[in-house]
Amino acid sequence: MKTQQLNINQLTAFEAVGNAMVSTNPNHYKESIYPGSIVIGMPLSVDELTPTVDGTYIVVTKSGNVLIKNVAKVANEMLVLHSLNEDFEPGVLALNEVTGVYKVVQVQTDRCFLN
């Protein structure tokens, strides 16, 4: 088993607002994020987002919006974003609009931590 040391000072907490992002796949219940959840993110560079990288991310835009999506692919200076909700249409975001990217490493609900 390998481990990676994380500097806790680099982690950032966000509060989830808006619609819940609920995975309907029972194997992915830990990926569900509900309004009021505290989402802990580890900073990444935009360059680290590639089509082969799986995971849930917080993408911070120049307008200050925080989008919590699954990143499907990066192509032609664009991000293609997917929600955990199956009925969500993929969104496209220009890379030059991104001011920060965080990989979700932990979600805290009012009852427990979901790793």
What do you see in this structure?
The chain is mainly beta. The chain has strands at residues 12-15, 38-44, 56-61, 66-75, 78-82, 91-94, 98-108, 113-114. The relative contact order is 0.24.
Keywords for this entry:
single chain; 115 residues; mainly beta; Umud Fragment, subunit A; 8-stranded antiparallel sheet; globular
Compute the number of structural domains: 1
N→C terminal distance: 17 Å
Q: Give the strand tally.
A: 8
Shape: globular
Main beta sheet:
8 strands, antiparallel
Runs with pLDDT <50, length 5+?
none
CATH superfamily: Umud Fragment, subunit A
Could you estimate the helical fraction of the residues in percent?
A: under 10%
The CATH class turns out to be Mainly Beta
Radius of gyration: 14 Å
What average pLDDT do the residues reach? 71
CATH architecture: Ribbon
Named CATH topology: Umud Fragment, subunit A
> Structural class of the helix and strand makeup?
mainly beta
Number of helices: 0
Strand content: 35-45%
User: What's the helix-strand series?
Assistant: EEEEEEEE
